[in-house]
């Protein structure tokens, strides 16, 4: 019997232009077996752990399953210690600054403070190098979700974490933060976005070729 392959250390992050990032993701259960394209079947917990490692390597604060090619309603996120001044001038290991980790399955957001905040700058690991202020987000939200043990949880957060959760749930509905800004903002980045689309197509072609070769070897 062939031994199961070890989980990958990190996943490739899908870029703007990848169709999976525009799909509405399907619900997921903690007992599901998931297959990230290019990798073998993994448990939801294994996928979540690898997503966290992927997020840390990319120096992000959140990562949704569609961003690794998996169209399910799951995201990971972290709260970091606010010690940027202490770390100024050096790349500190992000794990040393983690206060809380979140893994949310099938999250449902409810706005608890309807006042809008546009002051934060947003970016996205699937649109690297592009950051914009002015994205309107509710100041506080409640999230109902399932954890990795199958328990139903409710969490209420405000300010930055509320923004992170809204950003990640947007990904589960096929929405980018740029979609929440005037169209001319996207046009301002057309050159960069077109380059990402080309890179995304190249990655998908390579992934399809690798899958074709794998199937041929298994015949």
From TrEMBL:
SUPFAM superfamilies named among the record's database cross-references: Peptide deformylase
GO biological process: translation
Gene3D superfamilies: Peptide deformylase
Cofactor note: Binds 1 Fe(2+) ion.
Active site residues per record: 168
Top-rank taxon, per record: Bacteria
Single GO term (MF): peptide deformylase activity
The name this protein goes by in its record: Peptide deformylase
Keyword terms, alphabetized: Hydrolase, Iron, Metal-binding, Protein biosynthesis
Class in the EC hierarchy, top level: hydrolase
Organism (species): Deinococcus budaensis
Annotated positions binding Fe cation: 124, 167, 171
HAMAP family per record: Pep_deformylase
Xref: InterPro entries: Peptide_deformylase, Peptide_deformylase_sf
EC numbers on record: 3.5.1.88
Protein purpose: Removes the formyl group from the N-terminal Met of newly synthesized proteins. Requires at least a dipeptide for an efficient rate of reaction. N-terminal L-methionine is a prerequisite for activity but the enzyme has broad specificity at other positions.
Catalysed reaction equations from the record: N-terminal N-formyl-L-methionyl-[peptide] + H2O = N-terminal L-methionyl-[peptide] + formate
Family statement drawn from the similarity comment of this UniProt entry: Belongs to the polypeptide deformylase family.
Pfam family, one: Pep_deformylase
Cofactor: Fe(2+)
